[in-house]
Structures are given as C-alpha cells and as structure tokens.
Amino acid sequence: MDRGDLEKWRKMAGLGGLLGRVVLPRAIDAYLGFPGPKGNPGELRGMAGTYGGIATDADGAQADVDKLAKSDLPQVWVGQAQERACEVIGAVAFELEHSVTVMTKARAELDQLADGIEAAQHSHASGKEALHQARNEGDFDRKQSIAIAGMDQVIAGYDQAKATQEASARVFTDLAAQARASQLDSSHLDAADKLVLGQSAVPGGPHDVNIIMSAGDAERASTKLDALNDADRARFDELLDEARSPQEKAYLMRALAAGHSIDEIAEFGAKIHPYGDDPEWLRDHLQPIYNTTDETTGQTIPTTYAGAKWEQTGGTCVAASSVTARAVVDPLYAFQLTTGGNPGDPASTSADAFEERFLHETERVYGRPANEGSGMSKDEGEDAANDEIGPATGAEYEFHDLDSPEDRRGIFNDVAESVDEGRPVPVQVEGFDDEGHRSGHQMMIIGHEDGMLQIYNPWGHTVWVSEDDFVNGHMEGASDSRLPTVDGVHLPK
C-alpha cells in the first residue's frame, strides 16, 4: 500500500450513511497495517557525533599542514623534489580543509535527518494510537472523527519522512560528488599523484567550484590508464613527468578520459607544454567555463573567449549548447576552437578566428546555415547529445518529458548526479504567449553544488538556479520571462 491508497481509504472513511459504517472499520484496519517510517534517530545522532569528531581532528591537522605549506621547505629539497613536495603539501592542506567542510555538513544533515525521522515516527505512532481508540469506540460519529484525525497523522508522518529523506539524499549526493581524489583508483598512480590531480583547479575563483577533473573524468581516466599497453603507458608517463604544473597534468588526464589516443594526446601535450606553468592560459584556452565566485542564484556571468561570446547564431540553441558542452568535457576540442591548433599564432587565437570556428562547428551540428530554419527537434537534440557529448563522457542520452513539478522533482537527483560525473545535461525550457503559441529553447546544465544547478545558456552566459526554480517553473533567471518552465531533459541512460 502506498500514499495513494492511504488517500483513497481516507476519503472513504469520511462517507456517511450505511456505506460509511461498513467502510470505516476496513479503513481503520488498512491504516493500522501501514508500516511506520524506518530509521533509528539515536544511531543517526551517534553517526553525526562521529563525523563531528572527525571534523575537529581534521581541522587541527589542517592548521598544522597549512603552516607547513606556507613555510620554506628545507634547503636540501631543491628542484623537482621541492616542487613535488609543495604540490603535495598544498593538496593535503586543501583536502583537509575540504574534509572539515564536508564532515561538518554531514554532521548537520544527519542531525536534521534524525530530527525529521523522529518527528515522522511520533506522528505515525500518535495516529495509530488514535486509530486503536477509534476501533473500540461505539458511537459512529465519534469513531469517524477520531479515526480521520488519526489517519491525517499517519499521512503527515509519511510525508515528513519522505521529505526528510529526499532532502538528505540531495545533500549526500552533493557530498559524495566531492570525493574526487578517491575516483583516481588506477594502479599506475601513487597516492600523491591521486591527491594532487584530484585537487587541481583553475585559478580566478573559489577552489572547490573550479576543480578541473570531475568524479567521472577521474574514473574514466583511471580505466583508460590501466588499459594502455606498456609503450603507450611509458609515453603518457613521460608527458605527466614533464608537465610544468598540476593543472597541465590534469588536462592531460582529462584528454585521456575523453577518449583520445596517445598520439593525439602527445601532439596536444607538445602544443600546450610551453604554457604549462601558466594556469590562466590553460584555463582560457582549454576550459570554456569556470566560476569567479561561489554559486549565486540569478547572477548572470558572460561566457567569453578573448572577449568573444560562446553564443548561438539564429535558431541554433541546440547545436551551440552541444558544441560548448563538448568543449567543456573535452580539452582537445576546446583547444581547437580557441586556437585552431596554433597557439602561438595571434591570428589563429584571435576572437574573430574563434567566432568563425564556433559558427562553423555550430552549423555542422545544425546541418544547415545558422540563419535557416527554426531550430532542431527533440530527436535531433538527442542525436546531437549522443554525437557531440557522448563520445567524450561515455554516456548515451535519452529524452525525458517533464510535464509537472512532480516529474521535475523526481528527476532532479538524476540530473545532479549526471553533472557531478562530468556529463552535461541538455535542458529544454518553454513558454506560451497570450494566444497559446509555444516557444522553446535549449540550454545546458553543466554544474551542481549544494542543491544548485549551473546553466549555460547559448545566448552567451551562465547562471546558477535553485532546485525550486528548476522544479516550479521559474527558469526565467537562466533564460527570460518568455521561457520559464523546464519541459524536458536529455539524460544519460
């Protein structure tokens, strides 16, 4: 029996006359047989205390490591040894700081989960107590009144438990996605490599929202690394050993994760290596979108290269968002778009050259000149996702119609998990004019932190939206007032 069945029995229990007298005892029995919310609040609070203790210990260790990171290393550590030590100590310091944040959030969420489950169980128990009383009541009117009040408490307990558990699931989805270093489980990487690569971030904004490798990138890179033959493994090791910064190493790993051959990666590595110790150059040419601030609802951030926007021409929203998403997940593709493969040539790296290449790629995906036609169908959008994004992420996309807030709420965690794994999610929004004519637009979900989604709009900007905005038809902050409602997403299977 589910909530829908409870509602049906609740309605029948309110009937009068002979039918009500017949149905009411059966309704009471149905509610008494409905199991209470599961969970042990005491155990949850115990777990919360354990996490709190870990956070305290990590905070103390982080302070010590941070002092070491900011101090001069011993004189005998010079050259590559010193650089390596600095990288590792810096990564350890951040990992500990990050662990404190995560454990503190986990403790708070477990306490809230315990409170919610306890309240739900109390409501359920009170409801059943009233139902037992109603079962033994002789007067029908009083029996009915007491029973309905008890049924309402049982339903309230069910709703409380469901809401609490869903909220906690979203929080722990966020926290699980942040365990990036552990995803690099290749036997060919030592612990220091995993830590440094897993925490490498682009400069210019908060570290934790600018990590270069997603959990999915790390997992795919590890799998492909272990599958290399000895010769290719030696070539890739040499590229990593010669890299001039953790960021350069991370982009080489992302290239491997995106499915490129060692020959392609070696050519790419040779071209970016002269800029390997310039993280800002790497960011600007290999990563179309990064965060200058923590996620902020409604704040529109232009998406540009050399002053030129990553934006659609004509009705190419599906094509343009797919091209940008591919550049987000594949640094070689981003490199070709921004430099044409000639990073030292000012003409090839100019804003005009980038705009020409971006339009050419957009029209390739669109299948016709950008100013022809009125856009692409949902089937064409699914093909674009599978052809452009899928090969680099290992994902196969399928379209999901989302016709109600319940549909959107039900799929939110799946969307968030996909993005956490480094798989952008195309999202369709729609609106209707006064005469009932529909207009639609495609954007791309590319980020997720703390219950917020980062949306790339091919009008040339990004914005963070809340779960409530996504669910309840308030996407005008990401698009505009004409297109407020999410009506579908292309989600990896």
Verbal overview:
There is one protein chain. This protein has three domains: 41-177, no CATH class; 182-285, no CATH class; 301-492, Cathepsin B, Chain A, CATH 3.90.70. Helices cover 59% and strands 10% of the residues. The chain is built from 17 helices and nine strands. It has helices at residues 3-13, 17-32, 41-70, 79-135, 140-177, 191-198, 215-227, 230-242, 246-257, 262-272, 279-286, 317-329, 331-339, 351-366, 378-393, 405-420, 467-472; strands at residues 301-302, 304-305, 308-309, 397-401, 425-432, 438-449, 452-457, 461-466, 485-492. It has a seven-stranded antiparallel beta sheet, sandwiched between helices. A hairpin with a 2-residue loop joins strand 6 (438-449) and strand 7. The longest helix has 57 residues, at 79-135. The mean pLDDT is 89.
